[in-house]
Amino acid sequence: MPFEVKRKFVPNALLLSKSLIQPSGLFATGYPRFATLEPTSSTTFRDIYYDLCPDWPLSQRGYWLRSRNGAWCLKRNLKGGGAEHYQNARYQEIRGLDQIRDELRAVLGENFKKGNERLPFGLDVLCDMTTRRKQFLIDGKFTLSIDEMGFGTFGQLELETKNEGEVPALDARLADFMQRHAWFFYREQGPEKKFKGKMEVFFDLYGRGGAQRNANDGL
Q1: In this predicted model, what pLDDT tens digit does every residue of 152-188 receive, in sequence order?
Q2: Is residue 197 exposed (0-12), middle (13-18) or buried (19+ Cβ within 10 Å)?
């Protein structure tokens, strides 16, 4: 099962327009420059997250069960639940319906239900959102994602590994890389300040499990 290390940041609109349209990285918007900046994908996808209403125990414990365009994934934040662990997160990805079901049973205990077609895994819809995502590969190593939603634009940088023991070192690499390129990642807001990611903004606007259809406004 793969592990992801992610760090969120607040994108600067002017830098995005100047920097990301020049894949060669030969732009003079900041120093040190990226060695390479390669566009890799541009996609639109629909995420439906599930949890157990009204207490939402999965997300409270750092578990995020998602169906992305029909493909299932359960993400476990190795740091645990709570908004304070969202900005700089370490995730284990669990795929495969049997593996997901076993993990949910272990987390939910007696509250676990097999579910049916209407309520997958016996859970309720936590949120339903559509994202336009552009991805880039920086210096051949770091995956940059720029997410455009109907309620804002959000950025993240990530590294992946199959070895959980490598996760702390990858987290340190991300922190160092983003600090060295603060002109791009921290132009709007420094790493020491807390800001809201797209899930938190969604919950502020629409609530947990409420008015999901309105999340697509503006897309």
Answers
A1: 999 999 999 999 999 999 999 999 999 999 988 988 7
A2: buried
- Alpha-carbon separation of residue 197 from 88, 154, 210, 219 (angstroms): 11, 7, 18, 18
Comparing CA positions, the residue from 207, 215, 197, 217 lying closest to residue 87 is 197
Pairing label, strands 63-68, 142-149 = unpaired
Beta strand ranges found along 150-210 (DSSP E): 152-161
Q: 141 in helix, strand or coil?
A: coil
Q: What is the pLDDT of residue 83?
A: 59
Tokens of 101: 């079901």
Report cis status (omega within 30 of 0) of the bond before 54: yes
Residues 6+ apart with CB under 8 A from 73: 65, 66, 93, 94, 95, 100
pTM: 0.86
